[in-house]
Backbone:
């Protein structure tokens, strides 16, 4: 059968946006993409069997990122979103490895922080691997040469979020401990440099104070996805609401339960990746 170019293009537009993270944190990014682009189909992969990424070696993180990208490309996606700060920070060559356009969360978050700060004093909170990589610090310095940049790793927050301990006393104590060294430098803007951390945003705001600007890169990332698809003429033109499918590498029932908190309803299509 001969298919016209326009028909081929339409079929390409209908392909899904692929998103991966180590667990549920990337759902903060997916939620913003889904809200901004409700007609887009989305395929999400949470690598729940191997989380957290932030305490693993750079070589391991790069390996995981490539495997996740391969899996999502096998789902016939049109664009890949790396909704994991650690993978963005360490797997810096992933864009040349994949066959589809790639959007990460670090650059959108940096742009948002630079546009938001009034004093030029910015703090970054992230996993051990993300902070050690220095990627956020380098990007911020490049965009704001006279800025004062401070960073601290928060290695225990991701497991607490995965266990849904959003208001637990242990979580409160750890946030206070992790942020105290940074607050001595009086930043006016704090980047939540891990996609799990926005789930703790109320606690961060309460502990740091209402005058602190908290940067969640999720919305900026969604805007970057929209711009990229528009520039490539790949926005889904279908009038129907897009579908969302989810894959995990372990414990699908738990992911389904926690994921329902994001979307205010149950996640019907959660499949265990074998």
Residues:
């Amino acid at each position: 059968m001969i298919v016209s170019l326009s028909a081929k293009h339409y079929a390409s537009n209908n392909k899904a946006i692929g998103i991966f993270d180590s667990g549920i944190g990337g759902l903060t990014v997916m939620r913003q993409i889904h809200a901004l682009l409700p007609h887009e189909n989305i395929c999400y992969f949470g690598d729940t069997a191997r989380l957290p990424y932030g305490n693993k070696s750079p070589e391991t993180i790069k390996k995981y990122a490539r495997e996740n990208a391969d899996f999502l490309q096998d789902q016939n996606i049109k664009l890949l979103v790396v909704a994991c700060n650690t993978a963005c920070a360490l797997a810096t060559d992933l864009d040349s490895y994949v066959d589809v356009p790639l959007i990460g969360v670090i650059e959108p978050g940096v742009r948002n922080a630079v546009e938001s700060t009034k004093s030029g004093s910015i703090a970054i909170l992230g996993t051990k691997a993300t902070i050690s990589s220095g990627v956020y610090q380098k990007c911020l310095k490049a965009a704001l040469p006279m800025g004062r940049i401070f960073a601290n790793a928060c290695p225990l927050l991701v497991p607490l979020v995965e266990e849904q301990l959003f208001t637990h006393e242990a979580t409160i104590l750890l946030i206070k401990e992790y942020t105290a060294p940074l607050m001595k430098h009086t930043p006016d803007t704090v980047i939540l440099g891990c996609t799990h951390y926005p789930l703790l945003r109320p606690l961060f705001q309460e502990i740091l104070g209402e005058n602190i600007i908290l940067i969640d890169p999720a919305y900026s990332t969604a805007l970057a996805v929209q711009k990229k698809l528009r520039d490539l003429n790949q926005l889904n033109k279908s009038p129907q609401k897009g579908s969302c499918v989810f894959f995990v590498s372990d414990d699908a029932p738990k992911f389904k339960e926690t994921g329902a908190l994001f979307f205010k309803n149950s996640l019907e299509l959660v499949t265990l990746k074998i």
Summary: The longest helix spans residues 58-74.
